[in-house]
C-alpha cells in the first residue's frame, strides 16, 4: 500500500475491518456523548427543566447505544452494523443540534448563571460532528488517503487538546497557581502545534511527504503524551480530593481518555506510514 491508496486495503478482510472499526468508534464515542449529556445537565440552572430533560434523554440514548455496541462482536453481520451505524449517526446528529442550540442560548445571554463555558459547548459539538462524520465515512466505505487523514485528524485533535488545557486552567481554583500555570503552558504548546498542522494542511499536497508527515507525528506524539500524563495526574489528584477545583472527576477522566485516543490514532498512522514507506522503497 502506498501513501496515495486508502488506509484500508481492499482485501477480503475489508468487511471484518469495517465491523471492527465501526464498533470501536461507537464504543468509544457513545460513552463520550453520554458523558457530555451529563456535563451539560450539571451546567444548567435548576429552573432549566426542559433542557435538563433533553440532556437526560440523550444520556439514556447513548447509554443504550453503548450497551448495544458492547453486545455486538466482530463477527456481527456487516449489514447489521451498517444499519446500526446509521441509527447511531441519527443520534449523534441529534445531540449535535442540541449542543448548538445550547450554545446559541448561552451566547445570546438567555442562560445567565449557567455553568458551561461557550467554548466547552462548542468543543463538545465539534466532537459530536466528528463522530457523525466518522460513521458516514465508514458506511460509505470512503476512507481518506493516508496523508490527508493524518493531517486532518491532527488539526482536529490538536485543537481539542488545546481546548482541554484551557478548560482545566479555567476550572481549577484560582488559588491553584502552579497547576494553572502548567495548564496555560499546555494551552500555548497545543495552540502552536495546531497552527503548525494548519500550515502543513495549507501546503498540501506538496507537504504530504513521508519524512515531513513522520516528523509531524513524532513531534505531536511527544506533546500529547505529556498532556495525557498531566491529565492523568490531575484526574488522580481530583479523585483523591487533593486539589481545589470545580472539575468533575468524570470530566478529568474524560479528557484523559480523549488524549489517549489521540495517541492511539497517532501510533496507528505512524505504523501505516512506516509500512507504506518500507513497501515502496
Ligand atoms: Fe469530550
Ligand atoms: Fe474533548
UniProtKB/TrEMBL annotation:
InterPro entries assigned to the protein according to its UniProt record, in alphabetical order: CotB-like (IPR021328)
Pfam families on file: DUF2935 (PF11155)
This protein's name: DUF2935 domain-containing protein
Domain of life: Bacteria
Record lineage: Bacteria, Bacillati, Bacillota, Bacilli, Bacillales
